[in-house]
Amino acid sequence: MRITIKELAAAAQKVSKNAYAPYSHFKVGAALVTEDGTIVTGCNVENASYGGTICAERNAATTAVALGYTDFEAIAIYSETSPPAGPCGLCRQFLGEFNPEMKIYLTNDKGEVIRTSLKKLMPMPFTPASFKTTTKKKSSAKKRPSSSKGRSK
Questions:
Q1: Is residue 57 among the annotated active site residues?
Q2: Active-site residue (options: 7, 35, 46, 57)
Q3: For residue 10, what is the domain's CATH number?
Q4: What are the CA-CA distances from residue 111 to residues 60, 61, 114 (Å)?
Q5: pLDDT, tens only, 46-98
Q6: pTM score, two decimals?
Q7: Domain containing residue 23
């Protein structure tokens, strides 16, 4: 990685200020570094329906994909908590799609840095390789005959 952890953490902290978190007030920033050294950032964006909320990590990843990047080396995740917060389960699964062994740096404004990896945080991910282990089985389900009985006109 040509980018330093300090640079990546600074980019994550900077973008966290743009987070839209009117409900939780928990602002998070993420900075991904691609194989060619490009930094792509994202912040969390909450939604009143909660399910519509997007985490900083997924925001950074989808932005990177929109820019044409799918090879990620590392991600720094910034929060104001001590110790720094790790990615949620959904983000772990999402990031695993691109690099199940991605380096992860959890950071905060106190200068704490926890170095870990996606492999450590999610040791048995469901990845594109998981599809290679499936076998197609012939369906034993019987087809239903189509019938117009019982239908009103």
A1: yes
A2: 57
A3: 3.40.140.10
A4: 22, 24, 10
A5: 999 999 999 999 999 999 999 999 999 999 999 999 999 999 999 999 999 99
A6: 0.84
A7: 5-127
